[in-house]
Protein: ScbR family autoregulator-binding transcription factor
Amino acid sequence: MVKQERAVRTREALIRSAAEVFHQEGFTAASLTVISSRAGVSNGALHFHFASKAVLADAVEDAAAGVLQTIMDRRSSAASCILQHIVDATHELACGLRNDAVLRAGFELSGEAGRVPRTDLRLRWKSWVTDMVERAGHSGELRETVALEGVASAVVAATVGFEVLGNRDAAWLSRRTVSQFWLLLLPALTSVSFAGDLEAGGSSPR
Amino acid sequence: MVKQERAVRTREALIRSAAEVFHQEGFTAASLTVISSRAGVSNGALHFHFASKAVLADAVEDAAAGVLQTIMDRRSSAASCILQHIVDATHELACGLRNDAVLRAGFELSGEAGRVPRTDLRLRWKSWVTDMVERAGHSGELRETVALEGVASAVVAATVGFEVLGNRDAAWLSRRTVSQFWLLLLPALTSVSFAGDLEAGGSSPR
Structure:
């Protein structure tokens, strides 16, 4: 039991270490020796858990997909409607990308040239946003004149832009930047009276 | 003279070939042998022009920066105002990223982990958009209530998102996707009467 626990912890430490090294060096340049030594384990221990760098990258992606799923599933009790849930999720995502090396590396791995992603996190995020925008549209939360496809692609493109630009400058992932985006977009999406009830900065303090 | 012309052509062929290989394999994994053979020249010829892969990447970035500058400088006579010039430039950029391997690779190199960009194209684009949005604001083209900083960051984030997502799916760089973004945003930026004169699809056919 204790041995199992230690194995789980070693595996997690390796995933975190790999995420940090992938982010700094890129997947192709990342060295397994650097990853294992940063995790405080031997090269042998790394190979016991992960047969190759590709398998390790898949594990980082899986762990990041779990974090993303939690963000998408969590609906604040303060979120008055579906649109607010979408706004809240973009804030949670930006916050996660700022603070969680695994989530950040998972998104970066989605765009890595020459590697086929196992779980393309950007695509998964796109599917969720598209689904939620459609639901908001069918619930009458959006103006009838807006194209649902256009709303989904604007939200996905802007958040992926924040993610990518945030790799070099964390200000792109700040609450301020994400709020400004919604302050601009919300009045275009909903009627004026409805927009007044929405919180561009997210419905719960973070 | 003929010899000089040939040298210029070889250099250009190498830059184009490098751009294609960087896009497919990523900068780190890209092989100089593959790049030279795709350009139809010897490894020796490549090294005569470029001392290292890093120098070659700088040359790709420089060439891409030239293409981006042309896009930013070109103002259609049909563009009635600064905001239309910005809309047109986003369409030109998307079109360029779809069709020009050098421009695409230049943008990708800006985000390459473990490499300091010589000319960060995303930052250059951001500077231009920020400057133009400020000018549009000072010319009274925008609603007084919109935050100029928010407009610039929404446009930059969305276009960088289109660029990154377009690497795996060209539909993100289609005229339709870019037009939908503007159809959504323009009414939020300008008064209703003014927005009617703007072409979300760009002011000139392409």
User: Anything to note?
Assistant: Chain A has a mean pLDDT of 92. Chain A is about 70% helix and 0% strand. The first helix of chain A runs from residue 2 to 25.
